[in-house]
UniProtKB/TrEMBL annotation:
InterPro entries: Cadherin-domain_protein, Cadherin-like_dom, Cadherin-like_sf, Cadherin_CS. It comes from the Eukaryota. Residues 113-222, 223-317, 350-439, 442-547, 548-652, 654-753, 754-863, 865-973, 974-1078 form the Cadherin domain. This is Neural-cadherin-like. The keyword Metal-binding does not apply. The gene is LOC106457052. Residues 1-21 form the signal peptide.
Amino acid sequence: MILLNVISLLFVLSILPSTIAFRSENIVIPHDAQPGHIIKKYTYNGQTFNILDIELSDTFVILRNGILMLTSDISHKVGHPFYLVVKEEYQEFTLHDILVIHVKHKKHMLRFDNDLYWGRVSENLPSGTLVKGLEKLFAFGGQNNEVKYSIVSGNDDNSFSIIPSSLNRSVVVAVVTNHPLDRERQAIYKLLLRAADELEIDSAETVLFISVLDMNDNPPIPEKYIYKYHVPRNTKRFSVIGTIRATDKDGDRPIYHFQTRHPKLTIIPQTGEILLTGTLDQETYKLFIKIHDNRNPRKYSQSIPLIITTSKSDPFIRATTLLDVTENDTQHLVRAKRSVRATKSYEYKESDGSIVHKIMFQLEKEHPKEVFEVESPNRWVQVDKAGVIRVKEPWNYEHLGKEKTIDFWVLISKPGASERERERIIIHIQDVNDEPPYFINRPLPLQAVVQLNAVPGTSVFKLQARDPDTDHNIHYVLVRDRTGGRFEVDERSGEVRTRGKEPFMLDKEYVLYIKAEDRNGKISQYKYQSTPEMRLSIMGGKRAPQFYMEKYETSIPENQKKDSDVIEVKAKSFADRLIRYTLRAKGSGAGTFNIDSSVGIVKLAKDLDYEDLRQPQTYFLVVTATEDSGGFSTSVDLTITVHDVNDNPPRFELPDYQAHNVDEDIPQGTSVLQVSASDMDSDKNAEITYTIESQVFTIDNRGIIYSNKRLDADVNNTYEFTVEAIDHGDPQLTGTATVRIYTENKNDEFPKFSQDVYTPNVDENAGPNTLVTTVVASDKDGDNIHFGFVGGGTVSGMFQIEERTGVIRLISGSIQLDKDKYELNVTAQDDGSCCKDGSLTPHTSTALVVVFITDVNDNKPTFEECDTYSPTVKEGAASGTTVITVKASDKDKGHNGLVRYSIVKQPNQKGTKFLVDEVSGVVKTNKVFDREGEDGRFVSLTVKATDRGNPPLEGACSFKVEITDINDNPPLFDRHEYKEHVKQDTPVGTSLLRMSASDEDADNNGAVVYNLTSSHNPLDLSYFTVNPDSGWVILQKPLDRQQYNLRAVALDKGKPQNKATVELTIEVVNRNSNPPVWDQPVYGPIAIKENIRLGEVVTSIKAK
């Protein structure tokens, strides 16, 4: 039904206009998908999305950004496909996207065990090598009989393929190589493996990472293939006269040696530096250098000539090669626009480039001193400065891209030229038959059965081989016949057929040795590229089934669910009978697994626990395949390895760790305590990293806790924090423990006074033992404090201090306080009672006590809120306007606490701008203020409060009164009129003159905008316009008469709006007339002192 609906819809869409297109797609949704489940994400390119109104369309919604999602339950549609049409409307066309929705039960959807698998394979191994870790991949859950696997990305060079083995419920695949890999070319492959059902409706994908393991297959390669050095004979002994350098593609460190030891020269093996160890007395020395890697067995470079010439003296040592190639020739290029030479094309066979460093050709020079350089590194060739093209890596036709070319650009530098030229080089490669064929028959070894009464020509087996070369010509050859001529091999088809009329003997094995040859891949006159010899065993009558693999191995996680599939095994019946599979354990582990007797799927029968010592971690099983109706049986070994899952968090040996008596003055980085945690898991799951939630301490991976800052027992004598042990599993698990560190106090703190300066007051008539003040000091260490005066003792002049309490009093004797103040230096010394041996290191601090002697009226009035006074008054406000009410207080009582207010006049001030009520403190204006006049924006005011003591005390409060602006000033032009002489041919758009007006008001009241009006002829306005903000007058159209009369208008933005106007005259002069020219284009900046006298010269400007 769904097919008929889709066909009908396609027919309707096919008759729509050509600007409407359509496409279709299958989408599978799990049955338990909840509202909000995203079905598809469209790429948003500005189009609009809509869902056509058909059955179940209200079950979905599409957002403006192209996200299609589910809005209600859809489980009732399991097994009943339906379609949904999404319309995408672009400006040029409309696209209808037909989505065929398949709702499947979640357990029936194809899926892989993991989203990511890792495999590994060594480089240089032959094609067909299994990638370890990827031998048993399968997607489960599908209901169709066949699952198709494909590598959909990451296999651009066809390095890998998959070997499928289909059964009723799933397919097992292994990843194999298609050709020898080269780690130095690519170390890691990332493949995307896709599994799809037979109709390609349901699919699943997983990522395969394949690491190519290194083999020592590359010798060190020197940077140069001949070295020349010139050395003066007076060069000092042990001087470095040159350096040999090489690289190894395997990443090994090169080791340098002279091929034959030399009495006057030596080479440092690790660096390649050549040292002079004796006096050079010949004109020329020729030596040979060998370089090898540090592997075992070693790889050696070819011998490298070293030529050293000498002379009596030379101011410098110069190193060069025959081609004069120096180090640091490679330049980092910045792509810029360059001239491009004609493309050069060359044709070579693959075999022409088989020798590394072979010179293939040289680029033509347009200038004898041109220098060449490859623009981007190329895998196959290298280019030297002279334009010589050499083989960098042996050419391989099968590894080239689709075009089968070596395509690169070179940069050419010419003497005196600032820019380099580019030239494209294309080398077309012809395939050479250099790859041998290989058999693809499975299973191995090759086995077959022949009926006893088989007639001549009966086919019993078909050989199948492949060859990567394009011109292969595969022939199948019978190498050795151990059957007495009873079989023949068709040279072209690979069919193995019977010969002779005699019946074949029951249970007799007939053996043939065969191979496949590529007749176009000739090695010698009578020898061709071929596969290794393969043994084909043909059994007369019948033979036991053959498993597709000689042994089966797989691994499963310990948390794999019971009754889940583990692996599939498959055997081939030569009698085409049904096969029944049985499973038994070798050793322990019986009953842990069972097998589906009809399809060979091994399932987990019991729960696993990797950490349970009673369960083996590797199960050795035997699978037996038996043909029905009393047929043969055969067995194969199956090894199932259980790998650890991170299901155990780290556990500490103790829940609470404590360290006592840790000195607070230990150096930073001192170890304090060690904790220890263990994890019952294994390998990475059991590796532990420790972390702590503390900035004072750190911890290493051994669990040792170190101090990270200076400890302070006075602030915190107990440090408590949590330490975490985190394993390296996925997901990571964590264990915690509490750590308490108890610090030991040291007498390392000085006493600290509560304030550095004390300022008590004492009446001048105070008597003996009058309390002056109390000084307070504390010690973080908790020591007792002893007070005194500097110099020792507890008495200083007319003052005494109590040693224990810090109370300062007047002495008990005669008192005469005849100074305004007395300064006392007091001390506080700890006694070290806090700590052991603390008394050995006493600490002393000092403070200053200033005793002020006051009369009886000793409190002056204060304005407590003076700092908050910020009154405003509008300019132009009437005299007598209230500004603010000030308030002062006096702590004295009675008559001495009453205050009166007055205005403090500034020096030379005439009159007062403000008046204050002496009782209430209400301040009012005494004039009308002009903000733009002499008053300015702020007016300073000082109000004085005087008490009624004898003598009276007073306090003052100074603050500023802000004069707020009103729009009382019109704009003012800088000229009384504007006259400008303009040439008749002045271009349209030219700025002719700039009008300038200012407004003394503030903010919008002072912001000026410009306009033009006509004073005589309204047509004059059409020739000019003015920029309202800058005042520039701009020509709008060509001038065609001698004079234009306009009126310039300047308006401010205040309310009400003020304006000013001036006359503007534009006089047109002959194009040959020259107006005055200023002697400078710009004057300034000009610095002017703020108190400059009126009429002083500021600067001088001139025009001529």
